Amino acid sequence: MTAPVYEKVALIGLGLIASSMFWAMKRHGNLAGTVVGYARSDATRDTARRIGLCDTVCDTLAEAVEGADLVVLCVPVGAMEAVAQDMAPHLKPGCTVSDVGSVKRDVIRSVGPHLPEGVVFIPAHPLAGTEHSGPESGFAELFDNRWSLLVPADAEVPEEDMARLRALWEGMGANVEVMDADHHDLVLAVTSHTPHLIAYTMVGVADDLRRVTDSEVVKYSAAGFRDFTRIAASDPTMWRDVFLTNKDATLEILGRFTEELFALQRAIRTGDGDLLFDYFTRTRAIRRGIIDAGQDTAAPDFGRSPRKAT
Amino acid sequence: MTAPVYEKVALIGLGLIASSMFWAMKRHGNLAGTVVGYARSDATRDTARRIGLCDTVCDTLAEAVEGADLVVLCVPVGAMEAVAQDMAPHLKPGCTVSDVGSVKRDVIRSVGPHLPEGVVFIPAHPLAGTEHSGPESGFAELFDNRWSLLVPADAEVPEEDMARLRALWEGMGANVEVMDADHHDLVLAVTSHTPHLIAYTMVGVADDLRRVTDSEVVKYSAAGFRDFTRIAASDPTMWRDVFLTNKDATLEILGRFTEELFALQRAIRTGDGDLLFDYFTRTRAIRRGIIDAGQDTAAPDFGRSPRKAT
User: Fold this and answer.
1) Residue to substitute from A175, A205, A272, interface B, most B β-carbons within 10 A
2) Which of A202, B34, B165, B228 is buried most deeply by CB count within 10 Å?
3) Rounded to 5 degrees, what are φ and ψ at B259?
4) Among A111-120, A256-265, B227-236, B256-265, where is mean pLDDT lowest?
5) Do B203 and A283 touch (CB under 8 A)?
6) Which residues of B40-180 form beta strands (DSSP E)?
7) Region of A294 on the Ramachandran plot (φ > 0 left; ψ -120 to 50 alpha; else beta)
8) E-assigned strands of B49-119?
9) Which residues, in sequence order, are bridge partners of residue B8?
10) What ipTM does the predicted assembly reach?
């Protein structure tokens, strides 16, 4: 039996991602010799112990990271700097520090300077999630066939350390790509962050509109709106931090979005059917690209009404 | 064996909705004595014949509607007025004329005046659809447990005729509600039309952004974006007509949307984390409402990466 990829892994923060990582590591069986967890709140640590999340749940950050070969920050990105400061004195020389945050430039900026010499810093971002939160929300399959992006903080990360972190994510089911931090933040602004903001906004508008009752909004939600509401149920802390830390890219995309939207708004106001038709035809092609790439999702659906008893 | 709900049903336009209506009627077995279909293009009529869509495919509109007890307009709403004008002289006295368009005030305005005295006009809107189009896209289950809204053109529709149309939609699997036309258009602007426009816009922005390649947009599409692309693959003709004919309600919702978006944009620019957090917390409650109403959809997912051969 070969040695596990890491002897001791420390998960800092025990939410959806950390708990899924634990279950996925356990499922594989040979990714980590032992997995310890730490969370700031007593209640979270108690829950984790109760459900068997992690081999050991530590009551202090120091205890968790001591001797760990890999430390993964799974706290909201806004909380990472403080954690980095607190754990730095206790890190084992030569260990790898990583994370799972949805933005990367800001994580590098806020965490990097606190890490001692000799610690290998390889930020990461698994493109996976659900609308649920907390230590009980994780499951082993979350990363299966998902992308996990490794975003090394600088060019000098040893190949061997990159290979180990890649092996961990692949062992948990993901496919790994390496990406530059600023490019990551722009791509994610386009494909995830700005769409989320827009979904939140649409749901907020519906909530405000008194002439349309809440129950109608719920009952008659079409594909578009219900997808938006699912997005708008995502963790508020995580998303607040994403927008505060991926500000430039998000604002750039938002600016472009409002330009396009105003053009479409004018077309509607002036009855320019041709412009609308051309626009909608063009966007159809992008969807084709996704289907052809094997990334298709289920067909859209309107709100299902409960079958009345006959 | 009781008599079918309608002896002869004519489906005008043979796309996703009409074809699904045929298969759903056939599945039930006693909703229609015979179903005839008509489409403007030879190719569509040939395809329909080839796949057994409708008991008879007619080569003229007149032939299709003659003697029909129910005529359902399943053409884009922009095309309905011309169809109404052409078919009017051939309608059987006392028949019901209905439709399946996504807007209702405009359909009443454009179709109503052309219908002869004695014809019962009951516009409808089944809240169901997929991203596919055409005569081959229909299937019997499309309306199962979906809402179908009946929007009578005036207060004098005889109860018996309303009951028959309700029985048809319920027989096809739907649950029926009766709604006022202007209220319908507002509710749909909020829950469907404006979200669609926004999804189209987000996809258009991604398409423009050269620094993020198309393949990255495809590969790393997160839940939000992929849902948007699915929406943006919807039929361009149908959606162009929706926005041209539900202009006022759509522009009202769009106006509110841009107000909210600018407020969030400012919060991001100024780093107002509290405003963002409060906003995202509020929108989560709406999602709860949908789950509690039994309208939940599948969990969101990021782009699934194809498992590389090892």
Assistant:
1) A205
2) B228
3) -60, -50
4) B227-236
5) yes
6) 56-57, 70-73, 96-99, 120-121, 124-126, 147-150, 175-178
7) left
8) 56-57, 70-73, 96-99
9) B34
10) 0.81
3 state SS of B94:
coil
**In CATH, what class is B6-179?**
alpha beta
Band of pLDDT at residue A309, cut at 50, 70 and 90 = very low
- Whose tokens are 């409650």? That residue is B285
Cα–Cα distance for residue pair A62/A88, rounded to 1 Å: 9
**Residue B296 phi, psi (nearest 5):** -60, 145
Close Cβ partners of B158 (under 8 Å, ≥ 6 residues apart): B120
Give the span between the Cα atoms of B107 and A242, in whole angstroms. 44
B206 and A131 within 8 Å at the Cβ level: the answer is: no
Q: Which of B191, B204, B216 sits opposite A187 (nearest CB)?
A: B216
B271 phi, psi to nearest 5 deg: 70, 35
Domain B183-270 grouped into CATH 3.30.470.20: no
- Decide: B70 and B165 in contact? Cβ < 8 Å: yes
B179 vs A contacts (CB less than 8 Å): none
Residue B301 forms contact with A (CB below 8 Å) = yes
CA-based nearest residue in chain B for residue A299: B130
- Cα-Cα end-to-end distance for chain B: 62
Q: Domain boundaries in chain B?
A: 6-179, 183-270
Inter-chain touch B295–A195, beta carbons under 8 Å: no
Cβ-proximal residues to B8 (8 Å cutoff; 6+ apart), any chain: B32, B33, B34, B35, B36, B67, B68, B69, B70
Q: Is the model's pLDDT at A218 over the cut of 80?
A: no
Q: Do residues A172 and A145 touch, judged by C-beta distance below 8 A?
A: no
Contact predicate B4/B25, CB 8 Å: no
Residue type, B183: H
Nearest to A243 by CA among B211, B271, B221: B271
Q: Does A284 touch chain B (CB under 8 A)?
A: yes
Interface residue B210 vs chain A (CB under 8 A)? no
Residue A223 contacts B where some CB pair is shorter than 8 Å: yes
Q: What's the one-letter identity of residue B230? A: R
Q: Within the 105-144 window of chain A, which residues sit less than 8 Å (CB to CB) from chain B?
A: 127-131
pLDDT tens, position by position, B90-123: 999 999 999 999 999 999 999 999 999 999 999 9
Q: What is the pLDDT of residues B18-54, one digit of tens each?
A: 999 999 999 999 999 999 999 999 999 999 999 999 9
**Cross-chain residue pair B302–A147, CB shorter than 8 Å:** yes
Strand partners, A120: A96
Radius of gyration of chain A (CA): 22
Contacts of B304 in chain A (CB under 8 A): 145-146, 294-295
Which chain A residues are Cβ-neighbours of B104 within 8 angstroms? none
Determine the residue of chain B that is closest to A271 in CA distance.
B244
Please tell me the pTM assigned to this model.
Answer: 0.78
A209 touches chain B (CB under 8 A): yes
Q: For residue B222, give the nearest of A191, A219, A240 by CB distance.
A: A191
Burial, A85: exposed, middle or buried (Cβ in 10 Å; 0-12, 13-18, 19+)? middle
